[in-house]
Write a structure and sequence with these properties.
Radius of gyration of chain A: 19 Å
Order of helices and strands of chain A: EEEHEHHHEEEHEHHHHEEHEE
Oligomer: homodimer
Largest sheet of chain A: 7 strands, mixed
Helix content of chain A: 25-40%
Largest interface: A-B, 42 and 42 residues
Number of strands of chain A: 12
Chain lengths: 311, 311
């Protein structure tokens, strides 16, 4: 355990959840943008959100993801009577499908854990973040796990969490394309089928497994062939005007594969190398423009570090 | 291409299909027992099965798996007017769930391909074997692919076949326990659900993917945790008296995991090391005995070679 501090700031990167066929079970940490949470010890015993980071985000600690994670860290550490003031700085878009709520939870948990001298290990932190995410976005760890651990993470189970950090081929790059459209997480989850055919289930399992095999051996072509989601993408694509054309454009521009990031509306493409990722991102942006939607593009490496204390 | 011969014998190992959660998509080649097929060129242009290897197996070339594979090799090689006489020697039990029909198909295909000077590569051979298997046992490659290629094989797709040979940790051993009971492939497939819940589909996908990750890194404990089939095993277990107790016994004896081999009735356990596999096999045999069933046990390594010409 590190010595306790009076003020800690932690950063957690954004992530692509639902990575292709890996609905709820496969996520990728994206280098660059992320959320920061500063935790300060206060004299009381309440958790207060001084700044939620955006006017649309709740400052109510029972609904703020950073505060929920902080509370869960205290509970798991068995620490009572600690007052905390949290300040969130959002580097990730709200409701963008870029793992923003997860990143705030992870940064909050990591900051508070450090503030306490580090009572929780990574498993404990992951469990705390999962509880926070479950309250605001559903019980799945495919954003919190990569945001905490970095890299590409497979979620074998959530109760208790059992996650596997996968190998990341060195040239893998991500294009994140965020069109100017809204799609709420709830609406996006509501269109998922409650049942799938056995054939679809087995196909989906084979694709996720093939992605894992491709990552392990650096087989970019296999990674692309396996990035084939027949459950979430077909259900959500109709809610996302422009996405289907953007995906086709990405593939035509040389992307390995493309799909919806998290529950959308951000679309992502995986590519081998920076240039290919840039070409895919530009092509996707052009496709959205043709559908009448402006879109921002970000080309990024995989974040291999995960959440970290920065001050 | 090798020079053509007048008489070739090939061997193909048995396999565990439906490896745990990998229903239809994950299979493991088992060292030791297998089927042999001798192919001889004849003056006519017909494929004749001189000996099907067992009185219960069809000698009709339209229903014999070795002959079907042989015919498919000729078709894919574009070779007409070739007469073949096939002799099958069964080293694998009939309807045992140990990949016997696949092994006969693979040995037949490999023997005939060699007889022709090797016109087909492994992809072509796999496609030929898959056609034969589809005629007699359903369109799945989780037995033919490991029998042909050796090792543990993930089937990403079957149309066209796209398979991935996975890493095999050095200490991995298999216990195959064959109880004296019958379960036809058709009956065994008939009880599979046509639809599964989304939660079950995602859990199953996560387990197959985690098995692939565990094999890639040699993480035996993860391999055991991931060997959790919630689709086929719950449906088939009621048809297989003694299986549930045998599985419990295997786990209690130190196996990493256990499930039904192929469509049964053979049960298998995976273990780390020969001694653990033997303990699991013995415990499973005792459990079947308590259920009033005699059972044969085989402890084996993974066959890492696959099918081969032996004469």
């Amino acid at each position: 355990m590190s010595p306790t501090a009076a003020r800690v700031t932690a950063f957690a990167p954004g992530s692509v959840g639902n990575l292709g066929p890996g609905l709820d079970i496969l996520g990728l940490a994206v280098a660059g943008a992320g959320d920061e949470v500063t935790a300060v010890r206060t004299s009381g015993d309440a958790i207060v959100v001084e700044d939620a980071g955006h006017p649309d985000l709740p400052a109510d600690p029972a609904r703020n993801t950073a505060a929920l994670a902080a509370r869960e860290v205290l509970r798991r550490a068995g620490v009572g009577g600690v007052g905390l003031a949290l300040t969130v700085r959002k580097g990730l878009p709200l409701a963008g499908g870029q793992g923003g709520s997860a990143a705030s939870a992870v940064a909050g948990a990591v900051a508070v854990n450090q503030l306490l001298g580090g009572p929780l290990d990574l498993d404990g932190l992951l469990a705390a973040c999962l509880e926070a995410e479950a309250t605001v976005a559903g019980r799945h760890a495919d954003n919190v796990a990569p945001s905490l651990l970095g890299g590409i993470v497979l979620v074998r189970a959530t109760d208790p969490p059992d996650v596997v950090r996968l190998a990341v081929p060195p040239e893998l790059r991500v294009a994140l394309v965020h069109p100017d459209q809204r799609l709420g997480t709830k609406e996006s989850r509501a269109v998922l089928p409650q049942e799938v055919s056995l054939a679809t289930a087995l196909h989906q399992a084979a694709q996720v497994a093939a992605m894992v095999a491709a990552l392990a051996t650096g087989d970019y072509a296999l990674l692309g062939r396996a990035l084939d989601d027949r459950i979430a993408e077909p259900a959500r694509s109709p809610l996302l005007p422009g996405f289907a054309a953007a995906k086709r454009a990405a593939l035509a521009a040389g992307a390995l594969g493309a799909s919806i990031s998290g529950s959308g509306p951000t679309a992502f493409a995986l590519a081998r190398g920076e240039a290919a990722a840039r070409a895919a991102g530009t092509a996707m942006q052009a496709a959205y423009a043709e559908a009448g939607l402006s879109a921002t593009v970000r080309i990024a490496d995989v974040d291999r570090t995960g959440a970290r204390v920065i001050a």
